[in-house]
Each structure stands twice: as structure tokens, then as C-alpha cells.
Amino acid sequence: xxxxxxxxxxxxxxxxxxxxxxxxxxIFHRHGDRSPKSLPPTNLTTLGYEQSYTSGQYYRSRxxxxxxxxxxxxxxxxxxxxxxxxxxxxxxxxxxxxxxLQGLYPPVGQSVQTLANGRGVQAPMDGxxxxxxxxxxxxxxxxxxxxxxxxxxxTNAKLSSNSYFTSEEYRHLKSNTKAFYSSLVPVVxxxxxxxxxxxxxxxxxxxxxxxxxxxNSSIPSSDVLTxxxxxxxxxxxxxxxxxxxxxxxDVARAMSGKQLAGEILEYMNSTITAGTAGSSANKLSIxxxxxxxxxxxxxxxxxxxxxxxxxxxxxxxxxxxxxxFTDANVESGFPSTDDVQVRFLFHNGTASNSSQPSVYPLxxxxxxxxxxxxxxxxLGEFAISTTEAWCRECGNTDGACAAxxxxxxxxxxxxxxxxxxxxxxxxxxxxxxxxxxxAVVLSGLFVVMMLGGFRIVSKRALGAKPICDAENxxxxx
Length: 477
Prior knowledge:
The chain is of the alpha/beta class. It has one domain (about 20-105, about 120-475): Phosphoglycerate mutase-like (Rossmann fold, 3-Layer(aba) Sandwich), CATH 3.40.50. The protein is built from 14 helices and ten strands. Strands 1, 2, 5, 6, 7, 8, 9 and 10 form an eight-stranded mixed β-sheet that branches. The chain has a two-stranded antiparallel sheet with strand order 3-4. It is globular, with a radius of gyration of 26 Å.
């Protein structure tokens, strides 16, 4: 007993470590429940709106209140300079962002503004706070297409993803799941052609069935949809989408994850820069995006080594967060970069106070935290932060990339170093061949159009097809 008392006294006399302080956070968030991709245009459902709103409430309790509150962030009245909210030009993702923000910063009360003439103006909707959602081009229209690279303009990412359809894994799964997908034809025949019900369209099929099980009171041949069948459909969809989003030996297809890495680093650096300068800006960044970005990022940072679930498509309203924090004393000012650490959290599905995100180690390690210096260096190995870097990684040479296409610039290496027997680089040869082919095709097309009276119309005007045209090198089966 005396020994226990002695330890208690020593503990009381020991210096107390400085409390942990969260300096900023970056959240990447998936949209809420929506209508199926096979019936575009997709729309956020009431359930999806509620999921996004609930997630916003959770992150309000985490970052605007409580022990994990971000240092210096406004709790109730939004200060726009402290936030950065982005989403692609996509109604499902934009509306999910709006729902989330309503939970993050709810109305501040029935505030009344008095004008110079004495008239009082009451704020609509009990003081609903208007928070702009900035649009980004990456992932625009992603919820209206079946193939996750359809929204990418990155040439090398598309080529890399297409190579999945010639892989041994793909051919094996497509061949060995014919009977399984044939059993699903009665369930989806009202939407999909029988010829399209196979592994090639694994996600489209799963998505259609998944939405139906959530919203439809009756489903054709519903007896087919046993728990085992639903699990297999999800598992195959996961394998299909992860195969398209990431490959360890060909990371060109993970471009969306590389771009996200660049955006995370850029924002964290701005948070540190602002904090060092004594500014209250850049406290919290929230980006809404499609599941493809989750998958490619998971692969890039080695999360499948932490848990096999990181090779699967995240559920609706899933979120991952990166917290900048320090154990140093911040009373005298913002800590030095050497004292700043990073923590990664992920939650599959809607986060809430009863179901909170969990911490996972990054880059194949075992520690749940790492210094910002190490995090920045690791992420910087593949992060894409500039247009020039994006153009060179993607192999694009037109539009905004034209300025970086010249190989005469001694400050930059050519896009491809491999050369054929004639001394011409593979990249240059491919571009020349492509232009020659394009000229022949366009000439023939022009003649056909002139003789046949055809005209060019917008692809949008033709309407979206229910099945993704993921690749043209694999025969339909």
C-alpha cells in the first residue's frame, strides 16, 4: 500500500505533458446514397442527403468542438477564410457537399439586420449559413458514368486502366464468373442487356442491385439475391474497380490519387504557412469526390497492407481525414514544422458520434502518427501539384499541356526515354502515328458525311448509355 501511495505522489509531482493541439485538417468525402449509374442522370436521394448531413454533424463535433477542436477555428459563425470546400461539377457530389456543410455549420439563429431606413430584415431559414462550394474539373460528371476513368482527361491513366482488361486476373475472373452473372440476368434484365451481364460490367451490375435492395420494395426474381449472392456481387465489383484504379507496377492509373496527394500537401503547407504568420486562415479543407480517388489513393499510400478492406469500394458517405497536430506548447505561438505531426483516419460509411473514424498507419508502417516532414516527403514521391507535372505524367500534349510538350527544353527530360531501332522515341513515334491515323479517319469521315448527308451532334444530345464503354479491346461476351 505504501509503495502504491509513493507512486501516486511521484505521478502527481511529475511534469504534465502539453496537451495535443489540432492545427488543421483535410477531409476527403464520398457522396451520399444516390440513384444507380445505369439510369443517368444520377441524383442524390433523401437518404444520401441525410447521410451527408449526419457526417457534417460528426465532423462539427470533432473539429469545431471538443478535445479535437482545430485551434482558432470559429465554432458557430462560419469564417470563410478558414474553410476550403471543393467538389467536381457533379450534382450528386455538389449536393452532398451542401448537405454536409449544413451539418457542419447549422443556422446561427433568427438574426435580424437593421437597414439605414430602420427596416429590419430577418435572415431566411433561421440564419442558414451560406458556404460556397468551389468547383473543380477533376472528376466532373463522375456519377453519371459507369467507368471510373471516363471522367479523366489523362491519357496515360486511361491506357493504364485499359491494360487491366488484358490482365490474367481480369480474364480469369471474367471466364470463371459466367455462371454467376447468368444467374443475375432475371434480376437486371429490365435495365441491362443480357450480353452486358458479365464481369466486364461488375460494378454497374452491383450498383444497380445495391440501389434496388435499398430502395425497391419489390425486385424481379428477388429470390436469387441471397446474402451469399449479394456478397459475391460486391466482392467482384471491388476487385474490378480496384484493378482499374491502382496497380503497383503501373501507377499511372492512380492519377486521381496522385492529384489528391498534391492537394493535401498544398493545403497542409498553406495551413502551416498561415499559422506561422499568425493568420487564422486555412484551418479546414473538405473535398468531395468519387470512390475511384479513394481506391487509387489507398493503393499509393499502402493502406491495403493495413487492412484488406482498403481494396474495396468505400460505402456511401465514407470519409478519410488527415489531421495536423502537435504535442508542443502553442501558448507562445505556432509550433515549428519539426513539432508538427500527421494522423490518418478513415470511416467506411456515414461517420457519427456512435460510429467514429479509426486511425490507420500509412505507407506500410505500424505507427499511427508520423512527423509532417516524413509525411510530406513520402507523399511528395508521387504527389502531382502542378499542371506541368500532370501533363508529363499523363503524356498529354494538347490544350494547357502544349506549353510543356517540347522535348527541346534542356531543363526537362523527354516524356519517354525508350527508343526504337530508328532512333525515334516511342512517345514521338506514337504521336506521329496517331496524327497520321487521325488524318486518314477524318478524311474518310468527311467524304461519308458529304455524300450521306450526315451531321455532327453533341454526345450529350444523344443521351447517356446505360452500360459503360470501358474499353474497346475486349470482346463483348
